[in-house]
Amino acid sequence: MTAQMELVDLVRTWLTVYISAFLPFIGMHGAVVVAAATHVDWRAAWLLTTAGTLTAAALVLRIDRATVERSRNLPFFNRLFEAADHYIRNRDNSKDGHIYRTIATIIAVPMTGVGTLVACIIVKLLDLDYKRSMLAISAGAAANVFLTTAGVYGLLTGLQTILGAIFGF
Is there a contact between 61 and 135 (Cβ–Cβ < 8 Å)? Predict the structure, then answer.
């Protein structure tokens, strides 16, 4: 294969990972799996997945609050709003200074079922500062993607080692 074809394949693979992270039905966890399946280096997988997640978050945070409220009745978003409403109902109003750390934490913990979209909805419903919110979302997404990447790539490396020892490849 020529160097130009290799570059095209690399760009195509990287775009697939980036776009996978951007799409809400695949998200950051699915994008890491896509990256691992297509043999993307774990560092590139982390960067591309984090970038895709943050691009989606930035776009959602740019939507006005009225549009966000109207999407409450759509089937896919209904579950997201339930999670956001649950958080808002149960938050301690005396600790508003901690809201950005809380947003980073709910994104950073993998497999909570509460993701970047829910955090963006919470930000919109509470009218929080855009820059501080993006900083919190960035920190949470970077941590989550790192943990997911370490888990997926570690699992694959372990399986390859075990299967290689058993089957001799």
Answer: no
Q: How far apart are CA 71 and CA 135, in angstroms?
A: 25
Model confidence pLDDT, tens digit, residues 34-52:
999 888 999 999 999 999 9
Any idea of the CA torsion for 25, 31, 37, 38, to the nearest 10 degrees?
120
Render the burial of 126-146: b for 16+ CB within 10 Å, e for the rest. Answer: bebeeeebbebbbbbbbbbbb
Domain spans in the chain, listed from the N-terminal domain onward: 3-167
Which structure tokens are listed for 99? 């809201």
User: Does this model's pTM top 0.85?
Assistant: no
- Residue pair 136/103 in contact (Cβ under 8 Å)? The answer is yes
